[in-house]
Design brief:
Elements: E1 6-11, E2 17-23, E3 26-33, H1 46-68, E4 77-83, H2 87-104, E5 108-112, H3 113-119, E6 134-139, E7 144-151, E8 154-160, H4 166-176, H5 184-191, H6 214-230, H7 234-265, E9 269-273, H8 280-293, E10 296-298, H9 309-321
Parallel strand pairs: 1-4, 4-5, 6-9, 9-10
Antiparallel strand pairs: 1-2, 2-3, 6-7, 7-8
């Protein structure tokens, strides 16, 4: 019987402090401390985020170990987010992981946050594990890209946003409508009650596999301003239809690019990753694509889509199997491509 491999994953790239323990590919705990402080500012304040990480990291790690019913001495290795992300936030997780690994004299594993979003699909609990090669649409507040995944650590960016990320498009549109931050989930909620064809918004014209959302945001802003001049209560009276139309347009853009990627590569295995993949319309459209175009689609469990440490831990586990460890001199990197 092989000895179980316990990996502690630590995620601190943005505003959530998270720790997770996995045994082989099975999640034993996945604790996330959300930072409420940012909602009143309408976005993440980096200085406040790093301070909150410092307060949260010890209790979160402690809780993750307790929930997993193991002691820190049983850990095989510690995996942490090296980047990309907010530098102050990354430094908290990096310093903590280094110190703990040194103290316990166990391997340290650095994890690329973007790769981890994709590799979250290999957590045992997911209903199915993608087969290689597959195409992954990674969509979050900071990133929008289509990645060809040949094996666990061989990835190629086929297309990406040339300006804003899709999560930002959702949140900024919500802000224009006077909705609270983060606004993406609220647009999703109201869209379910509205008519997606009520207000046609123009889709940006960029390359086959690249994305652009800045023009769409501007178009939505001008449209709302124009309507409010005619009727000051326009948003309140038509909120569901506006949200449904915005969501429909954004999801159409994503699906168009995925279709192009399938056409170009001939790969019909599709996965989604990142916080925006929690969106109900995207999930519904992907399931339709399975029926209509014969795609095989992989949609991760809801809790593994947003930033969480289980995805860091599973990536750490896969790297551990390859003896791919980090040196203690490793440093956090605010900018990091999925291929690095």
């Amino acid at each position: 019987m092989n000895k179980p491999i316990y990996i502690l994953g630590i995620e601190s790239s943005c505003d959530d402090t998270s720790a997770s323990v996995i045994c082989n590919a099975k999640v034993l705990s996945n604790v996330v401390a959300n930072q409420e402080v940012h909602s009143k500012y309408g976005g993440v304040v980096p200085e406040l985020a790093s301070r909150a990480h410092q307060q949260n990291i010890v209790p979160v790690v402690q809780q993750a170990l307790e929930q997993a019913s193991i002691t820190k001495e049983q850990l095989s290795a510690i995996a942490f987010t090296k980047g990309p992300g907010l530098m102050g936030s990354l430094l908290v997780g990096t310093s903590f992981a280094k110190s703990l690994a040194l103290g316990l004299q166990i391997p340290l594993i650095d994890v690329n946050h973007m790769q981890a979003h994709i590799l979250a699909h290999f957590i045992e609990e997911n209903s199915k594990i993608p087969e290689f090669p597959f195409i992954c649409l990674t969509i979050s507040g900071g990133h929008t890209q289509i990645v060809k995944v040949t094996n666990h650590f061989e990835m190629e960016i086929l297309g990406q946003t040339i300006d804003d990320a899709v999560g930002e498009a959702f949140d900024k549109s919500a802000k224009i409508l006077g909705l609270a931050y983060p606004g993406g989930p609220l647009i999703d909620k109201y869209a379910k009650l509205g008519n997606p064809k009520a207000y046609p918004f123009t889709k940006p014209k960029v390359g086959d596999l690249d994305f652009s959302f800045s023009g769409l945001k501007t178009g939505i802003l001008y449209f709302i301003q124009k309507q409010q001049r005619i009727n000051p209560n326009f948003i309140a009276e038509n909120l569901n239809d506006i949200c449904a139309s915005i969501q429909y347009t954004i999801v159409e853009i994503l699906m168009d690019k995925l279709k192009n990627a399938v056409k170009k590569t001939g790969i019909k295995r599709i996965a989604i990753a990142g916080g925006v993949s929690a969106n109900s319309e995207i999930r519904a459209r992907l399931l339709l694509a399975e029926k209509h175009w014969g795609w095989s689609t992989n949609i991760p469990k809801f809790e593994y889509t947003t930033d969480n440490a289980a995805m860091i831990a599973i990536t750490g586990y896969l790297k551990f199997l390859n003896n791919n460890y980090a040196d203690v001199s490793v440093t956090a990197q605010a900018r990091l491509k999925v291929t690095e």
